[in-house]
């Protein structure tokens, strides 16, 4: 009897020990996932302009209200690491418009950054890229960059690369990345092969729909450099005002619609960095100004081109890590 009792107590201790060990392991794994995750918001093509009427398909008159709505939504989302504006922050390249939009942006409770769009500069005009950057540095304590392309580390294990895809020598909506910047991009990617890389720019590498007057002129060259590397990479763009998501092996190409035209939306991206894979959870966040959105939908010829399919709006995308990468 005594032997059976001792045997029962031994089994009970083993079960308790196993239960505690499993609990510790689950807690550690969950903690590891949360601690190594990253959450950011991408807002594109705001086309901010004060005291101006709507155009043929852009709700310009509502641009300040749409931007404020997006900012208020972002401020209500917990644990956002940063916000990235991927071009056409203002609709007209005037210094007064840039100064007018800054108080709205500085209502954000998280750091925000910027990449140039074709509406942000005026070829041969007063608001040059260098002046634009100086004004941003003076009004945004997190923006300390001297060049229109730059990189930073938002969190250990991640690298953000911001590219300048805007031609500033001719009046055009086409994009192009100059050789010096391409060389810099290649070097940044080469030195970040153990990181999850997030690339932001205005003009997409992969078009959401064909548009010869908006495409990246050297898209193939840019894509070849990006896809040369095998660590998880996300490429986030705007310009076409359309939603599209394409995955090529370890590279996720995300085209985000405009805030000022239908579907009046932005993206929330939550990244989980796990041992053998990286998970991109992408959410489509629409404006809460539904009357504005309804009118915006009436102003476009084919709304589905811009809103995309459901798979282009919300989705969970998995990139498997290759052995020796991100370890």
Itemize the secondary structure elements and their pairings:
Blueprint lengths: L1 H34 L2 E6 L19 H13 L6 E5 L8 H11 L6 E4 L13 H11 L10 E3 L5 E5 L16 H12 L5 E5 L18 H9 L5 E5 L6 E5 L2 E5 L9 E9 L3 E10 L3 H9 L4 H5 L7 E6 L7
Parallel strand pairs: 1-2, 2-3, 5-6, 6-7, 7-9
Antiparallel strand pairs: 1-10, 4-5, 8-9, 10-11, 11-12
For the record, give the distance between the C-alpha atoms at the N and C termini, rounded to a whole number: 53 Å
Tell me the β content: 15-25%
Q: How would you describe the shape?
A: globular
Q: What Rg is obtained from the alpha carbons, in whole angstroms?
A: 23 Å
Q: Roughly what percent helix? A: 25-40%
Looking across the biggest beta sheet, what order are the strands in? 3-2-1-10-11-12
Major sheet details: 6 strands, mixed
The number of helical elements comes to: 8
Low-confidence parts = 26-34
- Sheet/helix structural class: alpha/beta
What does this entry show, briefly?
The chain is α/β, with parallel strands linked by helices and 327 residues long. It is 32% helix and 21% strand.
């Amino acid at each position: 009897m005594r032997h059976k009792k001792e045997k029962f107590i031994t089994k009970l201790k083993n079960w308790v020990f196993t239960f505690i060990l499993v609990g510790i392991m689950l807690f550690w794994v969950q903690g590891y996932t949360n601690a190594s995750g990253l959450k950011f918001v991408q807002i594109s093509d705001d086309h901010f302009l004060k005291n101006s009427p709507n155009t043929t398909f852009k709700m310009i008159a509502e641009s300040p209200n749409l931007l404020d709505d997006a900012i208020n939504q972002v401020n209500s989302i917990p644990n956002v690491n940063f916000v990235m504006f991927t071009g056409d922050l203002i609709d007209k390249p005037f210094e007064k418009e840039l100064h007018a939009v800054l108080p709205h942006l500085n209502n954000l409770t998280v750091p925000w950054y910027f990449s140039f769009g074709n509406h942000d500069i005026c070829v041969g005009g007063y608001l040059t890229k260098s002046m634009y950057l100086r004004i941003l540095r003076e009004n945004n304590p997190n923006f300390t960059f001297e060049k229109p392309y730059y990189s930073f580390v938002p969190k250990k294990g991640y690298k953000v690369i911001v590219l300048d895809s805007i031609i500033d020598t001719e009046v055009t909506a086409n994009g192009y990345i100059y050789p010096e910047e391409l060389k810099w991009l290649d070097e940044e990617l080469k030195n970040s092969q153990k990181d999850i890389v997030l690339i932001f720019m205005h003009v997409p590498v992969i078009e959401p729909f064909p548009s010869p007057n908006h495409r990246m002129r050297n898209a193939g060259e840019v894509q070849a450099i990006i896809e040369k590397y095998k660590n998880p990479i996300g490429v986030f763009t705007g310009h076409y005002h359309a939603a599209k998501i394409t995955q090529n092996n370890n590279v996720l190409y995300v085209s985000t619609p405009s805030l000022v035209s239908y579907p009046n939306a932005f993206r929330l991206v939550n990244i989980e960095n796990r041992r053998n894979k990286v998970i991109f959870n992408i959410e489509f966040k629409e404006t809460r100004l539904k009357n504005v959105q309804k009118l915006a939908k009436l102003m476009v010829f084919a709304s589905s081109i811009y809103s995309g399919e459901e798979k282009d709006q919300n989705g969970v995308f998995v990139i498997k890590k290759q052995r020796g990468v991100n370890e």
